[in-house]
Amino acid sequence: KCFEVVNNSIDKAWQKRRSMAGKDNAGLAGAKAPEVEVLTHFGEGQRYDSLTLEAVGGNLCFLLVDHMGLLSQSPAFPELVSIVLIHIRKHRKHCGSEALRRQLTTFIQTAEASAEQVRVKREALTQVPSFKKFLIFDADTSMAKLRVTMTKRKADEEKQRIEAETRDDDKPEREDDTGDKKKKRRGRRQREAEEAAQEAAEAAEKAKPAKKRRRKAGKEEEAPGDQKEDKVEEMAFSSEED
């Protein structure tokens, strides 16, 4: 039922995209497949977007492989999977997405091979298995191996996604730390430059001739009150009568 809804929606999405060819291609080119396992509700734009629908179809394929891979350990697997394959073949025939069609083809081929492997194991049984035990075979069928591979790939993708989000969260803090370090280095360089300039001035002062230093020191020691005052002496002039 889910594949039927997805296939119908994919057909509508592709028809809509072909009818809008050349109009909004800029927005479609930058589109990105959403995280299906994170979203619980799709917006109006995402519900009719082909990338969203293909992501949903891919997760449905993973769900099928997960269930059928576990059931492939049961002697009843050939009968169980035959009903599923009838619907999957029909949906693959009418699927408008090439990527989803390839996944369905892989599932069909793996299911058929696993069904044949289970039949061989079932015929090799020497006694009827207990009805209380449902999964009696080892997980060595093609479907079981595909289940292990897809589960591992899913776990790796989830791990990479978490690491990427963690790096994005730590980036602002690292940038702040880098800014503080730059400020500290800038302040230290400024203090070192001031100290070097002061030392250069002191060295230049010491390098002046001794006489100039003494003359300068003598001028600094003279106070305004120590300056000599000019004396005015009265002179007596003789008159003409004398």
Automatic annotation (TrEMBL):
One of its GO terms (biological process) is ribosomal large subunit biogenesis. Pfam families: Noc2 (PF03715). The keyword Nucleus applies. Signal peptide: none annotated. One of its GO terms (cellular component) is nucleolus. Its main location: nucleus. The keyword Nucleus applies. Keywords: Nucleus. Residues 153-174, 218-234 have a biased composition (Basic and acidic residues). Residues 152-242 are annotated as: Disordered. It is found in: Nucleus. InterPro entries: Noc2. Belongs to the NOC2 family. This is Uncharacterized protein. It comes from Alexandrium andersonii.
